Amino acid sequence: MLTERKSLITGNWKMHKTLAEARALAREIRLGLPVKARLEVALAPPYTALAAVYEENYGSPICLAAQDTYWEKQGAFTGAISPVMLKDAGCRFVIVGHSERRQIFGETNETVNRKLKAVLDTGLCPILCVGETIEQRQAGRTLEVVTAQLREGLAGITGLSGENLVIAYEPVWAIGTGLNATPDQAQEVHGVIRRLLAEMGAPAQSIRILYGGSVTPDNAASLLAQPDIDGALVGGASLKADSFLKIIASAG
Ligand code: PGA
CATH says 7-249 is which class? Predict the structure, then answer.
């Protein structure tokens, strides 16, 4: 990884953790966090635990992330949460376009684009997730799918920088399956994403590209050693302080 990009390890807790559990996990992570200048850590608890995790990590270098957002600022949108609310709750990052949102909740590149614009307008940093399904990979369509997700997701957006955009490459077949992409497979797609960002006029060398999909303490170091892998988006292994801290220890 180039020295100008700090590693970012993000824990995506998905639909896990009560308030008490969230506080306890955030505290354990805070207490075990190594001091590394070239490393950032973010936690993405469910909405209900954002404030508690913010309080628990207040004054520590751990950043808060949300798992999703709606694109409107406020209004009659029952059940929705806006980027303004997320900023108010202490978030710095917002995950947008996670494959579970795309597959289970019908998110499209167009809705992802609206969310990205809203997140950026609010001054928060989106973590834009892209990645192919197993069928798409087997059909040789990985790069085509990822390219469309990036181009359509970022359509009409200017002013991108290493401070206001993070990309996460998460092959859908690797999420929660125990089947991580090999470091070579991941690096290939990360390299393509960086070239695409450059083609789109974004400062590609400053933008962090995370890998996600069955990252564990055992495979983190070899993935993070790849030149275009700047961090990890960790699901299952972020739910326990011990395994998440081990992944953090192999970064930065
Ligand atoms: P996983 O999830 O680490 O459990 O595979 C990653 C993610 O969905 O962000």
Answer: alpha beta
